[in-house]
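pls design
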């Protein structure tokens, strides 16, 4: 994903355009990272350079939890325990 894409994105749930980007792996483009919406506490993983910005009902819990576990040490505060739609609260 290219950084400039952030200028065109908004949260698909609350429509907030003020999203925050966290980069975990980057080469020429962002390979792994996280986009968060501070308004509704939702997160959207970037996996293999693709932002997974889907509404809650289309998300895969197993995929999101696996991503959160993999990057637990780099996640912004609150996402692991309170992020939506899935979080690691029951495992913390």
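designed seq:
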């Amino acid at each position: 994903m290219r950084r400039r894409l952030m200028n065109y994105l908004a949260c698909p749930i609350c429509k907030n355009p003020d999203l925050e980007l966290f980069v975990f792996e980057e080469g020429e483009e962002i390979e792994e990272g996280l986009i968060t919406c501070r308004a509704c506490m939702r997160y959207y993983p970037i996996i293999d350079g693709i932002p997974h910005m889907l509404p809650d009902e289309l998300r895969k819990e197993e995929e999101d939890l696996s991503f959160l576990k993999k990057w637990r040490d780099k996640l912004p505060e609150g996402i692991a325990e309170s992020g939506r739609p899935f979080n690691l609260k029951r495992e913390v």
